[in-house]
Amino acid sequence: MKLPRGLEGVEVDETAISLVEGARGALSYRGIGIDTLVTWPFTRVAHLVLTGVEPTDAAQDEFDHALTQVAPLTESDRHCIELVACLPIHPMQCLVALTPLLTHEDGAFAEFGDTAPGLSIAARLPNAIALLLALRRGGGSPQFDDTERDPNLRFLRAIGARADSKFVHAFTVTQILQIEHSFNASTFTARVVASTLAPVANALASAFAALHGPLHGGADQAALETALAVGSAGAAHAFVDDCLARGIKVMGMGHREYRVVDPRAAYVKRFAAELSTGTDLATVTQTLEAIEARFAQRMKEKGKPLYANLEFYKGVVYSAAGLPSDFFTPAFAMARVFGYLAHFIESRKDNRLIRPAARYVGRRPMQAPKE
Fold it and tell me: What is the dihedral of CA 176, 181, 186, 189, to 10 degrees?
């Protein structure tokens, strides 16, 4: 019997958090489609994903207050971030190291039980990433608006990004589209670690480690850097043809789940075009569009239609925010952390250790001779 490599198509557990309908290109969180969710405030979507219930105004106010109250970094947090910032490692590796070290404020999220420390980490991530970026740039500590309840707006202001309503809307919607996506590689990693009854911070750190990979969340950095290397839309055809001839993957193209256009990518592609018009990023967007068009054409010829996924154009949105490419995936983590926590909560309701079997194909042990 042929093994399903990469667990493709294998249902390993149940979830009520999000539904990916790959055949028709649809995504919903807790039964609500993303076309509706992108009109909500970010923290309202996060609350829905975590609890499964659309919050009342009072519940939402309490949740927002707790996130804002816990967001400021402690002296211990700052010291840890300063220590890792000087290391010659990727920001995602910094995030993996920092996650268990960030201060826990369990009382602020008492209603979430064992997940309370994780929510404290989620609340501090925007400030932690903004400080890490400032230190990497060699600047002083960013100015944080501790009264701002919108974590994405607080982050954008801290890194000195554009503050016009069009840009803030594009960034916020992009983050909403990234909060949750069923049993993706990093979420499944979080559930595996959670199943051992390890602390929630361990589950989050392991998820961030998996998210870093270029076949997963790290594709956002890889796709933009590819476009920069290709240089122009005119060079896209030759680039794609060469990749296909040599069996090289074009990062950000195709998705394990979607057989039609990734519904999230449709939003981000539009934002990339809008935000890059008349800027230095226009050539990057045009190059990405040309790569996508040529790749889709070649795949259609092979009878294997593939399209751009969320990561392909996202780097343009993040670049417009002033983020260097190695900070794209940490910004992704700021949103997906709420999805990880939702899965941690769900898995602990009926926990069972995840311990799959493996088919052994190695050398058989020698049998002792019979006397």
Answer: 130
Distance CA 359, CA 335 (A): 37
**pLDDT (average), residues 218-242:** 93
Q: State yes or no: pLDDT of 113 exceeds 90.
A: no
CA–CA dist 237, 294 (Å, integer):
6
Q: What is the pLDDT of residue 36?
A: 98
253 secondary structure, DSSP code: B
Which whole number is the average pLDDT over 50-57?
A: 95
Count CB neighbours of 9 within 10 A. 7
Average pLDDT of the chain, as a whole number: 92
Q: Report in angstroms the alpha-carbon separations of 292 from 194, 227, 361.
A: 37, 11, 40
Helix (H, G, I), strand (E, B), or coil: what is residue 16? coil
CA distance 308 to 294: 11
Q: Is the dihedral of CA 296, 290, 257, 16 positive or negative?
A: negative
Distance CA 32, CA 24 (A): 16
Distance CA(368)–CA(365), nearest Å, equals 9
